[in-house]
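Format is sequence with structure; example below:
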Amino acid sequence: MLDVAFSKLAAPKTGAVVLLLAEDEQLSGIAGALNEASGGAILRGLEVAGFKGQKGKTALLFAPVAGLTRVLAYGIGKRADLKDSVLQEAGGSIAAALAAEAQVTIVAEGIPGADAAHIAYGATLRSYRFDRYRTKEKLEDKPKLAGIAVQVADATKARAAFVPLKAVAEGIFLSRDLVSEPANILTPTVMAERCKELTKLGVKVEILGPKEMTKLGFGALMGVAQGSVQEPRMVVMQWNGAGTRRARKPLVFVGKGVTFDSGGISIKPAAGMEDMKWDMAGAGAVIGLMAALAGRKAKTDVVGIVGLVENMVSGNAQRPGDVVTSYSGQTIEVLNTDAEGRLVLADVLWYAQEKFDPAFMVNLATLTGAIIVALGQEHAGLFSNDDELAQKLLAAGLETDEKLWRMPLGEAYDRAIKSDIADMKNIGGRYGSAVIAAQFIQRFVNDKPWAHLDIAGTAWSGKDTAITPKGATAYGVRLLDQLVRAHYES
């Protein structure tokens, strides 16, 4: 992880320097002093580049002042419009632009200390790299940036504000690591073992194997798992942070963890099947969230539960037309073995509400390709039986830029999963299939306040963004941390 330091304002003497400049403001303070030391070269360079401090705009100057390798001017827009997300994007963009520098000093003049922490947070998130299997990468191809120093008037407040943000970043990195791992490495067993590492943060971790789940009656989850030689696992993670204030019911987050999804006998096309290593991104987000909440010592009680299976083709695989009995006692006709995530969630969600009587349940799943058709990769789909919970999630999405779009639920969609021989079938036709999948899941929440986040389009990105490099996004960790922080801590 990027090394971050905060210090008082002073004109930098060496290395790369970043000046955060507001829109249409004159160079003053340290920026003015550096411009004067450059003989006016910085101001002339900004004028030539047409730089006026517009949000997200940059101008890079090479060695304008003796001792400095580069000066990067970064526009933060109008100070009246400045918010955390703008500063996070600034930090991330700076880390990407100056990745070839060993050390960078960011001059955050005029920015309050607590706000400046978000610059370092954004830079940290953008610096993530999954390279553990690159054995022949040339040194010159690797980013050199190892640390940043943020200069701010109140460095003490900045340091204090960065502590919980760093904990969330560590949870995000854990989630990205899990989602990036190849499926031959990250089996359900290995993923469950990695959850055990959260005990170092004070999280209570319980792992259930096939014997325990069979005894409980997890017919839906075990049906998905039966085609693989890799044994399934369910992991229950508990963070008890409320202490003596334990008056509220716990918050429960549930993740779909299909460590590889071949589609089973309803096998997927070969093209793109390699992407199905990240069909466990919902579980990865829940694990990262638990690490983030425990790491920053969130003052609330939270339970994270993940159902971990591999969906494979074999002589023992579940067949289209099979009927399984879920933990709830409801029977399911499995018409398509590639609609497996909802089967895993069916058992885990019923277990969650029965075992913990939660204030609410939120599940995350890379559930349907249909949600990508509907929303692209800009929003995840939100389905909920509770308007208050839905509104809180939508607001948290806007605050963190992990955006949601609420989708409908209704009896007409529910009728689509009526089965001729069982209580329900696991698919209901092509049209509205993301909604129908949500209707299926809703049958297993027993009227508890619940939200289903279909993150199939947002769990992985094919391009860099300001604070997320190409690859696993850890979508949901920041969103749900914000939900908890804003509404459910004492």
In short: Residues 155-180 form the longest helix (26 residues). The chain has a mean pLDDT of 97. The chain has two domains: 3-159, 186-487.
